[in-house]
């Protein structure tokens, strides 16, 4: 049994601890002008240790733990709470912040004295750690008693700041931090001891959220609801957006200055809802300053601000970027359709493609710049252009006009556009991607490319290949296979021409003139009409010799001569001076007749050359009624009759030594346009049938609706198929026994292997 001298009684021990507590309070209330003596600290720690390690019934750990909580409660009730309540307004907030700061110091000091409890006793009983007890008592006694006044003071200061007054941000930060720190005690007192005890702080922002943040969000919403209602009634759209942008920036700064970062997203969401979402429709639709007006006037800075603001909101048909994108789409369609209407009223459409490119550049810059290259705006740009790019200009399709534009910039003597040709080609391909009739463009382009290559009018082989490569990348190898084949034929023909020259040299053959022949592969090139024309003897000799050479090289291929796109250089011996004439083969056939006699009637020339009368009259017009009058017509007049007489014009002269006559074939004739459309229609029928067979082969059985949808989807890359055409092709395939109808259901098709 312990003697009285061997242990410390509860009264003695606690009396010493109380003295230590009072001493620290005295020092703290005096502003820490003197330190808490180290000897006193050691004495009190030893006292606590002894009381906790004495054997029962003199072990007072449990009583010490209870009195530790009570000592806070007594002090807070007696000193701290009255000090706070005695003050009002900002003075009260200053006192509240100061008392919490002192309380944290007090808790830290007391923990150092009672730390033995934390290490062993509390761990054993799974009790609340000492620091948590200190914070809990402040919450129960002080915080709960004054939280409403403190909250009102905080919210009042925030509202004053929003209205333009200066406030003490450091004070606000200190007071707001109390709401956060009470909810999570552990980061306040870093230590290695006792930190793992309990799970305090899991819901660390519960108090901050419940006691301050919820009210802050409600008052914020009310404030901006009032303010935005005033703005929308009086301000223009750009002015409103500048004010909203400024307010949002202020709220971000406010969070960084004295609120907790967890509030930023929620606070901004309230602001965005009241400033932007609530008034979005009214703001965008403002008649003279809304989104449409900004687009019309090209106000890129305001549009960029609009995008930046409304990208904050979730997207829906009535909210966020979606309504803006629809207005942009409507605007682009309106501008595009006005361009189409303007073109319809003009006779010359040659600049239409250039205007489309400029229009696309304008709105692509808008999408890439103010609208941040957002995919939503990329999509509406594409959709808008697809609307008017696929409108015909009179009887001419955009596919034809775009192809003609390409032809004009790719051929020698065509319009040269400033800037890199590669950049222009990229823009052409971009417009091409909006066409629904891509196959129509391909067919026109193929015919024009053929003329450029065969008449030696192509300005650059590299540019030709570059455009074909870009189209290939966009539509696949099958789309450009014929175009690539044409370029390959031209290269092969150059080698063949060298071989022909060498063959004639080896066989001592002299044609008396230069002869160049281009051999084309039938499948790659457009189909040309073959006229049974009577060639001059000089040309007949060339044809015979090349045929002989070609047949000596291959026996599997047969040559078919097409003179439509041939060219000749003939020397005209006029009285003033001789002039070289660059003319077509058919023009040469006509002029070579004048080596035999001076004049012929139209009928005589037709009989001699075997040219169809319609064609002949066109060629005679180029020789007698155009800029260069090689022949003279009698009687004079623009109309040509069968009995009109054409005489060689010996008096003809020109400043140049060599002149290029109009070749007729360089321009796309109405017949060619018609044949192009017929060719495309025929090709589409085959493409539709091939697609139907592919789909049915894979699926075996399909309903009519499913089949039409899938075939349309497959062919959409080349053209927009007409459902009626698909239905006709299905009927054709059924009649040829590729498909059959289901016996029980007429709307279902089966594939026949």
Concise overview:
With 753 residues, the protein is mainly alpha-helical.
Describe the 3D structure.
By secondary structure, the protein is mainly α. 64% of the residues lie in helices and 5% in strands. The protein contains 28 helices and nine strands. The protein has a three-stranded mixed sheet with strand order 1-2-6. A three-stranded antiparallel sheet has the order 3-5-4. The chain has a three-stranded antiparallel sheet with strand order 7-9-8. Helix 2 runs parallel beside helix 5 (115-125), helix 6 packs antiparallel against helix 7 (169-183) and helix 20 packs antiparallel against helix 21. The longest helix has 33 residues, at 130-162. It is elongated. It starts with 9 loop residues before the first helix and ends with a strand.
Features:
64% helix; 28 helices; three-stranded mixed sheet; 753 residues; 5% strand; mainly alpha
As residue ranges, the low-confidence spans are 187-202
Distance between the termini: 108 Å
Main beta sheet strand tally, sense and closure: 3 strands, mixed
Lateral strand order in the biggest sheet: 1-2-6
Please compute the radius of gyration using only Cα atoms: 47 Å
> What share of the residues lie within helices?
55-70%
Shape: elongated
Q: Tell me the number of strands.
A: 9
Tally of helical runs: 28
The helix-and-strand class reads: mainly alpha
């Amino acid at each position: 049994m312990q003697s009285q001298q061997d242990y410390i009684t509860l009264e003695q021990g606690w009396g010493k601890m109380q003295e230590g507590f009072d001493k620290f309070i005295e020092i703290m209330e005096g502003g820490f002008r003197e330190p808490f003596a180290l000897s006193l600290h050691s004495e009190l720690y030893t006292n606590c240790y002894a009381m906790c390690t004495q054997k029962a019934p003199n072990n007072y750990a449990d009583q010490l733990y209870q009195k530790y909580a009570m000592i806070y409660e007594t002090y807070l009730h007696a000193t701290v709470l009255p000090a706070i309540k005695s003050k009002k307004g900002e003075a009260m907030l200053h006192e509240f912040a100061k008392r919490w700061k002192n309380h944290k110091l007090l808790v830290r000091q007391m923990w150092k004295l009672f730390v033995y409890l934390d290490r062993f006793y509390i761990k054993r009983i799974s009790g609340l750690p000492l620091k948590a007890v200190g914070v809990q008592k402040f919450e129960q006694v002080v915080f709960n008693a004054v939280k409403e006044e403190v909250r009102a003071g905080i919210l009042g200061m925030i509202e004053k700041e929003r209205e333009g007054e200066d406030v003490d941000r450091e004070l606000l930060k200190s007071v707001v931090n109390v709401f956060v720190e009470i909810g999570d005690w552990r980061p306040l007192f870093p230590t290695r001891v006792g930190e793992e005890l309990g799970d305090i702080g899991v819901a660390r922002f519960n108090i901050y959220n419940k006691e301050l943040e919820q009210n802050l969000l409600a008052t914020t919403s009310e404030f901006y609801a009032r303010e935005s209602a005033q703005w929308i009634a009086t301000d223009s759209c750009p002015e409103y957006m500048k004010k909203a942008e400024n307010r949002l920036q202020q709220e971000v700064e406010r969070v960084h200055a004295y609120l907790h970062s967890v509030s930023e997203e929620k606070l901004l969401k309230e602001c965005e809802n009241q400033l932007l979402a609530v008034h979005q429709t009214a703001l965008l639709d403002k008649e003279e300053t809304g989104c449409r007006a900004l687009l019309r006037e090209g106000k890129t800075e305001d549009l960029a601000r609009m995008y930046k603001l409304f990208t904050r909101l979730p997207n829906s048909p009535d909210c966020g970027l979606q309504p803006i994108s629809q207005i942009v789409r409507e605007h682009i369609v309106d501008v595009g359709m006005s361009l189409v209407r303007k073109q319809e009223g003009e006779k010359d459409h040659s600049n239409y493609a250039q205007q489309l490119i400029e229009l696309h550049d304008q709105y692509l810059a808008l999408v890439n710049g103010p609208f941040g290259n957002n995919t939503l705006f990329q999509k509406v740009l594409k959709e808008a252009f697809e609307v008017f790019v696929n409108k015909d200009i009179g009887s001419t399709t955009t596919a034809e006009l775009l192809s003609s534009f390409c032809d004009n910039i790719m051929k020698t003597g065509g319009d040269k556009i400033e800037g890199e040709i590669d950049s222009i080609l990229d823009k052409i391909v971009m417009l091409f991607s909006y066409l629904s009739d891509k196959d129509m463009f391909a067919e026109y382009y193929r015919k024009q490319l053929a003329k450029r290559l065969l008449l030696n009018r192509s300005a650059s082989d590299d540019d030709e290949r570059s455009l074909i490569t870009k189209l290939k990348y966009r539509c696949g190898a099958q789309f450009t296979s014929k175009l690539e084949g044409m370029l390959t034929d031209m290269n092969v023909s150059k080698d063949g021409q060298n071989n022909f020259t060498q063959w004639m040299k080896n066989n001592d053959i002299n044609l008396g003139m230069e002869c160049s022949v281009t051999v084309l592969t039938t499948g790659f090139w457009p189909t040309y009409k073959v006229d049974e024309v009577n060639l001059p003897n000089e040309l007949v000799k060339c044809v015979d010799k090349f045929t002989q050479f070609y047949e000596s090289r291959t026996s599997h291929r047969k040559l078919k001569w097409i003179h439509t796109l041939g060219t000749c250089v003939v020397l005209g011996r006029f009285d003033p001076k001789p002039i070289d004439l660059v003319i077509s083969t058919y023009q040469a056939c006509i002029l070579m007749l004048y080596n035999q006699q001076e004049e012929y009637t139209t009928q005589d020339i037709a009989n001699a050359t075997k040219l169809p009368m319609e064609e002949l009259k066109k060629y005679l017009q180029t020789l007698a009624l155009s800029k260069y009058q090689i022949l003279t017509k009698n009687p004079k007049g623009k109309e040509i009759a069968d009995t009109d007489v054409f005489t060689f014009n010996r008096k003809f002269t020109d400043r140049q030594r060599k002149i290029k006559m109009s070749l007729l074939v360089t321009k796309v004739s109405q017949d060619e346009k018609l044949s192009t459309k017929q060719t495309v229609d025929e090709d589409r029928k085959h493409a539709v049938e091939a697609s139907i067979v592919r789909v049915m082969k894979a699926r075996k059985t399909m309903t009519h609706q499913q089949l039409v949808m899938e075939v349309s989807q497959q062919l959409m890359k080349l053209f927009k198929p007409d459902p009626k055409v698909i239905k006709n092709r299905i009927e054709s395939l059924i009649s040829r026994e590729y498909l059959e109808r289901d016996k029980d259901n007429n709307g279902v098709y089966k594939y026949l292997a």
